[in-house]
Amino acid sequence: MLTAPITTPAYFSRIKDVVKAHHESLKDQTPVQKMQAFIPAPVLSHLTPQDVFLDPFNVSQSLIALTSPWIDLCSTDPVIADVSAQVLRMELTYASFCGVSTVLLRGPTFRGGVSPTRATAQFASALLHAMKAANYLHIYLWIPMTGLSLASVSNKQVDLNVSLSNGAENTVELSQYDSWDVWNTIRTVCKYSSRLGLGK
Questions:
Q1: Residue 44 covered by a domain
Q2: Is residue 152 part of a domain?
Q3: Which of left, alpha, beta for 113 (phi over 0: left; psi -120 to 50: alpha)?
Q4: Residues near 63 by Cβ (< 8 Å), separated by ≥ 6?
Q5: 38 in Cβ contact with 78 (< 8 Å)
Q6: How confident is the model over 136-176, as pLDDT tens digits?
Q7: pTM
Q8: Structural domain that includes position 102
Q9: Buried b / exposed e across 60-70, counting CB within 10 Å, b at 16+?
Q10: What is the spatial distance between Cα 75 and Cα 86, in angstroms, rounded to a whole number?
Q11: Which residues are 66's β-sheet partners?
Q12: pLDDT at 150
């Protein structure tokens, strides 16, 4: 089996610029103004040929597509969480368009001060909506079963939240039983979909 990422590092840079610009636009507002005004998250533009690795005319049936490891569906920043959900939906629909049948997605990342239960529910909800956009894809989650922090799955590339904060964040260490609870919550929210499984 072959693996290939769906999007390029250039796409990561473009998304970071969009989120930074949105945060900059909110800096001049007072906390009261932020509470009174509903400010939606930025809407991402469609993928361009420079954003993707996959080619719809040159994809093998045995290919496993990799979603971006910097996607942070569990972020406490609503803008980053929303943008990450948009990226996931676009990547899954594009992979489906290219004829890919299997996708590997990094599991949730937990940080200090955030309830793992809440973060897992947020992750599962975003995944459920993304799965509805790509009805034929099989999605496998990459969740460590050894009790290690879920952030350690991708230690070579930080997620969107850490990248924008210019530093690493404290992550929560989970036991092997917590890992089971995470998986059980996700598959329950996703209604025990036969298209959802655990990757090796």
A1: no
A2: yes
A3: left
A4: 1, 2, 3, 4, 100, 102
A5: no
A6: 899 999 987 765 454 544 444 456 665 565 555 555 666 66
A7: 0.85
A8: 2-38+49-198
A9: eeebbbbbbbb
A10: 14
A11: 5, 104
A12: 47
